[in-house]
Amino acid sequence: MELTSWTRRLALAGSGVAIGLVAIAPLASAQTTPAPVAPITLSPEESQAVCGTWIPKLTARTTKATERINGGPEIRGSVANLKARAQDQRAKNHNDRAAQLDERAKKRSDRLPQLADAKKKLDDFTAAHCKPATGPTK
């Protein structure tokens, strides 16, 4: 009997905490204006590391993600693949699963402008801050 009482108390306390977090979470994330962002300054070594390591990796990731999203039905994860799978599910009369796949395809195609914006920002940063490597002058 005592174990049941403690279990009930623990469940009641846990649900009280959960309700409190759910009630407070919107208040904690509500900001009216974003804080101003201070410019970032990099030393030449840090700039070289960013330009030599991070920019190529991030550019490759955005390119790869864009190619995957725009791929054909044979490319796993592409919009065309998701739509083909949704059509296949509809043919099998699995309409709920087809709707899920259609929603995933829509969300995935909505990512293309974000990826294009990220690629543009990377290219702008490269043009402004990354100097091409020059060999020793004679």
TrEMBL record:
Which InterPro entries does the protein's record reference? TAT_signal
Q: Which intervals carry biased composition (Basic and acidic residues)?
A: 85-105, 117-126
Source organism: Amycolatopsis xylanica
According to the record, the residues making up region (Disordered) are 83-138
Signal sequence region: 1-30
What protein is this chain from?
Answer: Uncharacterized protein
Q: Which UniProt keywords apply?
A: Signal
Q: What is the lineage of its organism?
A: Bacteria, Bacillati, Actinomycetota, Actinomycetes, Pseudonocardiales
